[in-house]
Amino acid sequence: MSSHAVIRDDDYVIDQNWAGYTTDEHAVWDFLYRRQRDILADRADEALLAGHEALNLNRGGIPDFRVINAELKARTGFEVVAVPGLVPDEVFFTHLAKRRFPAGQFIRGRRQLDYLQEPDIFHDVFGHVPLLTNPMFADYLEAYGKGGLRAMQFGKLKNLAALYWYTVEFGLIETPKGLRIYGAGISSSKDESIFALDDPSPNRLRFNLARVMRTEYRIDDHQQTYFVIRSYKDLIHATVDQDFAPLYMRLADGVTYKPDTILPSDDVITQGTQAYALAKIAGTPG
Ligand code: HBI
Ligand code: FE
Predict the structure, then answer these.
(1) What's the mean pLDDT in 135-145?
(2) Three-class SS of residue 8?
(3) Of the bound ligands, which one is closest to the alpha carbon of residue 104?
(4) What is the pLDDT of residues 100-122, one digit of tens each?
(5) Which of the ligands is closest to the CA of residue 103?
(6) How far is the CA of 121 from the centre of ligand 2 (A)?
(7) In 3D, which of 182, 51, 195 has the Cα closest to residue 125?
(8) Which ligand 1 atom lies nearest to the CA of residue 103?
(9) Which of 72, 143, 243, 271 lies 20 to 30 angstroms, CA to CA, from 24?
(10) Would you place residue 282 in the very low, low, confident or very high pLDDT band (cuts 50, 70, 90)?
């Protein structure tokens, strides 16, 4: 967070202060952009790559939100707003529900090119914002924001956070060319972009809403399981179009699964070498 970033009010929105970025900060963006685009060329879903193009994220340097918002708003009505870093859940959900994506204002330094704790502008704008040019994905994030506010009232935030994690952050999609990346946590990471598709150790399982919402996740290492959707339309159908009330009733038993677990009911696309297969579960999975 830069020293001039003054918090305006409780929506945590700050001025991006694009003119305040240094030459070196712009160079960090260019370096990361080129590196990820090369890795993602035949690994990312085409909707994600198309989003990079549509927003012209390679104009040179850190994107100016005033410029990308003109394009983004015209396409889906979504808008990027600058925030200092992680914001409280309720603030995050409220922005999404209003079709605003809160993006970190700062960019990582040269000593942390590959890993950092808080979402910076590269993770948020290179990773998340391109898919917001896609009308279905934009609807999904708005619905997630609204669902997040409801989940907080139901005490089901943990389940909903798992859904976000395994879709928006670490989702894979099945395409005629094979599995492809759409999750921002993968697409903005050099190592995980390769690991998620090529490494033999993680499981790749067909997306199932209740199953995903019961799954624990790791924030400190590559994922042990990725969930694969068939299309964004399918994802919307499986989530936005469902009534979550009965789902939350089922989840009330509190059963969760470890990140490396494979259940008998799972539709396994590739079984990881580190998988822990559960032969039988008390009760029914999902
Ligand atoms: N804040 N800036 C920012 N970015 C996030 O992705 C984010 C957040 N606050 C809360 C949050 N994510 C998650 O806890 C929810 O999705 C559950
Ligand atoms: Fe993220």
Answers:
(1) 96
(2) coil
(3) 1
(4) 999 999 999 999 999 888 999 99
(5) 1
(6) 10
(7) 51
(8) 2
(9) 72
(10) very low
Kindly list the protein residues that place their beta carbon closer than 5 angstroms to ligand 2, a single-atom ion.
184
* Ligand 1 atom at shortest distance from the alpha carbon of 128: 6
Q: What is the CATH number of domain 18-282?
A: 1.10.800.10
Q: Is 45 helix (H, G, I), strand (E, B) or coil?
A: coil
Tell me the percentage of the chain whose pLDDT exceeds 70: 94
Please give, one letter per residue, the 3-state secondary structure of 194-228. Answer: HHHHHCCCCEEEECCHHHHHCECCCCCCCCCEEEE
**Cβ count near 268 (within 10 Å):** 14
Residues with CB under 6 A from ligand 1: 83, 86-87, 89, 92, 102, 119, 161, 164
pLDDT at residue 6, rounded to an integer: 53
Contact 29, 36 (CB under 8 A): no
Q: Report the SS3 class of residue 144.
A: helix
Q: How far does CA 212 lie from the centroid of its chain? A: 14
Atom of ligand 1 nearest to the CA of 169: 6
Residue with the two structure tokens 């994802």: 235
* Number of other CB atoms surrounding residue 279 within 10 Å: 6
Percentage of the chain exceeding pLDDT 90: 86
